[in-house]
Write a structure and sequence with these properties.
homodimer, alpha+beta, Nucleoside Triphosphate Pyrophosphohydrolase, five-stranded mixed sheet, 4 helices, 25% helix
């Protein structure tokens, strides 16, 4: 791993740390709906469904390789984790009118300003099966090319971080990827690269 | 894969399907808290935190091998998935006063009536890093022995399903495991068995 890259990563991870949390009133993003569920076996159970911005919350996660062989990574405030900031992959919610691949392409463009060549679906999975319909998709994006600049929502913060494929695997070994989404993405990419999928 | 086992699985998966959803008022399990987060770089962002039963919602997932070499699996209503019922591993929320291993042992006892020998922590990860503190733990439980019967909460339904290690991997190949928790658990167990971790 290049020393200056690791230093760059550490600086970004430090800068985006949350120093203070102030509770405020109101909730607009996370809501829930409660249902009485009538099962085929005759039993009736009550379950609550999580919605994000009134939507299911299905996301696309993108392992994006540029034409020059670099991987596009995100450093983002993840304020409720112990670290308050995490390294991860470009990702975002798929809009109800979008196909997963469309959403993945849009997110890559918004978060990094990159356009992908091929998009290969590696796996799909339920994010939190007990209380959500969210069904996430892992894409491998190849031959990504810069076509513009980052375009984020007002409240969104993402430090782009680029390093080689080998360095990405080194960062995994070092424990920098800490979420289910990131860990599963890495497994599927490695399996794909080994020709196993 | 033994034919009668696959038939048993199919029957359970069918029985626990949800036929009808009736929306009802009120929410008691999923709630959220909103925070103004003051970052080190000076920016202030607003984020909402998901709570489950007023708690963080960290869970333990257990790949449990019995003394006779079988794997303890769960068939559970997962009403908001497309299938409305999923095959998965014993798992449950860790109580605030518990260590992850304690929670894992308790869940295995409650859901299957089995006591584990050794408990090996294979990995830990954030379940949904954008809006939650939930930090899940994957355990491999060895030499599990039946010491009692299933003890579930009133509204909980779990069909225990036992099959061999090889059959579990076959069910993975066949696409029966569909959640991030289950998929990551399988990867870590296979890596452990290959002496890679």
């Amino acid at each position: 791993m290049r020393k200056e890259k690791l230093k760059e990563l550490t600086t970004y991870l430090e800068e985006l740390k949350t120093l203070q949390f102030r509770p405020i009133e109101g909730s607009s993003f996370l809501t829930s709906e409660t249902y009485e569920c009538h099962l085929k076996c005759g039993r009736v159970i009550v379950r609550e469904k999580l919605l994000k911005g009134k939507k299911e919350g299905s996301a696309a996660i993108i392992f994006a390789l540029t034409k020059s062989g670099e991987v596009l990574l995100n450093i983002e405030p993840r304020v409720f984790t112990k670290e308050t900031v995490l390294l991860g992959f470009p990702s975002g919610y798929i809009e109800p009118f979008e196909q997963p691949e469309e959403g993945a392409r849009r997110e890559l463009l918004e978060e990094h300003g990159y356009q992908a060549g091929k998009m290969i679906l590696l796996d799909s999975f339920y994010q939190d099966e007990g209380c959500s319909s969210a069904y996430n998709h892992i894409f491998l994006a190849t031959s990504c090319e810069r076509v513009g600049s980052q375009k984020l929502d007002t409240d969104e913060i993402i430090h782009p971080f680029l390093c080689t494929y080998e360095e990405t695997l080194e960062l995994e070994e070092l424990g920098y990827f800490k979420s289910a989404n990131s860990k599963l993405t890495l497994e599927r990419v490695k399996q794909y690269q080994k020709g196993r999928l």
